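note to self: dont lose this again. the chain is below, predicted strucutre after it. 163 aa total, dont forget to put it in the shared folder this time
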Amino acid sequence: MTTVVPFEPTATSAFTFQATLDGGQYAVSVPWNLYGQRYYVQIADTSGNLIVNRALVGSPAALQIQTASWANGTVSVQVVSPYYFPFGSVVEATISGCLPNTYNGQYLITVLGPSSFSYPLANDPGQLSLAGSVQDNINLAAPYFQTSTLVYRSQLQQFEITP
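---
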């Protein structure tokens, strides 16, 4: 289950909230850095020991998949609207909401054009009956936490925490 925390910064103090990451409680602080002219995310344990201090980087919103088909161990995908990845780049992305479920997962996708990409999938998942979405999740808690993720959606101005 994903927990959503709206980002509501103030001019006078750091934005803070509590998060459960890998089963433990942590304090997350998002201060404005005057020198860097940007927000940073800091994660500390309950004793105040700093675990993470990094620049706040936003993950883009999900893109709707239009079509997906499998052939020879590769899934070819078309999305409804163009995305922001350069041609030929390889990006870690999450495919979700597709049926059959076998299309879903976290993959290294290869960008083939402004609205198409491919990813390896060993077995034929069958014909796509429900098109889901693809998103590039920049995990701000990696590699410090093994199973939990902390993602900031800049367009939505919110943090998403998964256990």
